[in-house]
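Bumping with the actual sequence this time:
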Amino acid sequence: MILNLVPARGWTPDFLAPTGVGSIPELLERVRFTPRSQIRADLALMAQWEPIPPWARNLPNDAELLQRVYDSLDQVCAVVLSPYWTQITNAATADQGVRMRQTLTGGMEGILASLDPRRIRWHPPVLEVALLSGRDDDLHLAGRGLLLVPTVFGAGTPAIDTDAAPQPVMSFPVRSDHLAKTQSWLIPPAQSGPPTSDAALAALLGHTRAAVLTAIAEHPGCSTKELAAHTGITSPSASEHATVLRTAGLISTIRHRNTALHSPTHLGTGLLNT
């Protein structure tokens, strides 16, 4: 049912793609509390661009049918999304780390020019985006800004949600080299064994500090909060371990506004490779 409402190419009802941050269970719960009026409006908007499955036409008025759709969404997430969430977030975090560094060196102009040169072009003060649908429109931000979201989904092309609140959202493909560094998309993380060198590195640095150094190398430009999430420790503990690694010359830390961004040094990378 969900795959009928979310075509590989085309329009997706907004209520099935809630904006904002949150875990998978939180976002699924947010979908379940969508007002019926919004579902009705989203389906009407979708119908302007492509046919709606006949069974979905009465969706806003049929509580039992709506419950089946929500259960279908839960099942899809459990089977095709949750097992690979680590790889997905790793790829997105790595891309965000690069964008952070681009901000420090080339500003927003550098980021906009490098997102997807084939389909996204920055001609100040206009950002031109070639959508897969071929839709031709003008979007005036009116001071709201534009939220950039790296994604592993879609057909390798950018997408824009003009109705997202509090600002429009543009998703763009994560860099292919970041995807290449992740584990196989066909093997859930639990089935992948650790490298044989992990034990030696842990014996040298200690298990937690070795995990912190490895996480920084896998996610260059990560913040202390992100580092804590990747290693399963608290932010103060992540900060303490990062300080020790920085003092030893294994990582470098730069600040962007009020955020510390950690990256491996040549010495740190060499230690991991050894």
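The tokens above came from a reply further down the thread. DSSP finds eleven helices and eight strands in the chain.
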